[in-house]
Design a protein that fits this description.
Blueprint: E1 18-19, E2 22-23, E3 68-73, H1 98-111, E4 115-122
Antiparallel strand pairs: 1-2, 3-4
């Protein structure tokens, strides 16, 4: 689930744990994409502030890790996602349809002035020496 992005503790590996969707992983595993574009998640901060850092940790994703990450930011206290969009609960196994993703992409481009926080950067597999 997307809320795992914000966990303050290091990820853990539970070898025998499975869910109805497959192997349980302590992280956010995106669906295989067969359409153009990229996966994204909106994280609303509790108050306006200054980002001092973040850690993108691919721990335990050793053959299916995301190859790169980019982080954007905006000041948009009134930003909402259109109510008609499905799959936005962040619950395990949920996802938005390609049509909903297109609607949200268009809405977000109009609703906020986004700026680059971290340019697209390569990520390594989740081995100890390459996971951060």
């Amino acid at each position: 689930p997307a809320q795992m992005f914000l966990a303050p503790s290091p990820p853990v590996f539970k070898a025998e744990l499975f869910t109805e969707f497959g192997k349980w992983m302590d992280g956010w595993e995106s669906r295989r994409r067969r359409t153009p574009g990229h996966d994204w998640c909106i994280i609303r901060l509790g108050t306006p502030g200054v980002l001092r850092g973040f850690d993108v940790d691919t721990a335990f994703f050793t053959g299916n890790n995301v190859p790169a990450v980019g982080i954007m930011g905006c000041y948009c206290p009134e930003l909402t996602v259109p109510d008609v969009v499905t799959g936005t609960t962040g619950a395990m196994g949920t996802c938005a349809t390609p049509e909903d993703i297109a609607k949200v992409d268009a809405h977000l481009k109009q609703a906020a002035n986004w700026f680059e926080v971290l340019p697209r950067s390569a990520l390594g597999p989740g081995y100890e020496e390459t996971r951060h």
